[in-house]
């Protein structure tokens, strides 16, 4: 008996010898030609694009590195001011609230049922 992998059931299924020897999607009668171009205009070759791509703006990484590496006593996760403080405090409140919720749920689940 011959088997092939079924993409629908994700299991091996019985099959005829001809389909077992041809992988899914490949047929022996189709020519191996490249498909036709679907682009209306040809694309640029890498050497034609130049040193930098047109869509890229100014490189902000060196400025951000200087900003975040200054030693002014502020932790790096709070350097950008109010939005960072808001995000940090919200994260900490949700974390503490989640831990409290888990502890209360654990306490309630551990109580025997009293009727």
From TrEMBL:
Pathway: Energy metabolism; oxidative phosphorylation
One function term, GO molecular function aspect: protein-macromolecule adaptor activity
GO terms under cellular component: mitochondrial inner membrane; respiratory chain complex IV
Keyword Transit peptide: yes
Membrane topology: Single-pass membrane protein
Annotated SUPFAM superfamilies: Mitochondrial cytochrome c oxidase subunit VIIa
Source taxon at top rank: Eukaryota
Keyword Transit peptide tagged: yes
GO terms under biological process: mitochondrial electron transport, cytochrome c to oxygen; mitochondrial respirasome assembly; regulation of oxidative phosphorylation
Transmembrane segments: 86-110
Any matching Pfam family: COX7a
Keyword annotations from UniProtKB, A to Z: Membrane, Mitochondrion, Mitochondrion inner membrane, Transit peptide, Transmembrane, Transmembrane helix
Protein localization: Mitochondrion inner membrane
CDD domains referenced in this protein's UniProt entry, alphabetically: Cyt_c_Oxidase_VIIa
Similarity annotation: Belongs to the cytochrome c oxidase VIIa family.
Protein name (database record): Cytochrome c oxidase subunit 7A2-like, mitochondrial
Source taxonomy: Eukaryota, Metazoa, Chordata, Craniata, Vertebrata
Gene, per the UniProt record: LOC102193481
């Amino acid at each position: 008996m011959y088997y092939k992998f079924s993409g629908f059931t994700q299991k091996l299924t019985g099959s005829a010898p001809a389909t077992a020897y041809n992988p899914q999607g490949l047929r022996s009668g189709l020519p191996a030609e490249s498909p036709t171009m679907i682009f209306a205009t040809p694309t640029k070759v890498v050497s034609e694009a130049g040193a930098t791509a047109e869509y890229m703006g100014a490189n902000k990484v060196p400025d951000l590195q200087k900003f975040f590496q200054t030693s002014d006593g502020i932790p790096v996760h709070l350097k950008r001011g109010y939005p960072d403080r808001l995000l940090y405090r919200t994260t900490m409140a949700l974390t503490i609230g989640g831990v409290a919720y888990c502890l209360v749920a654990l306490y309630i689940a551990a109580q025997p049922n009293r009727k």
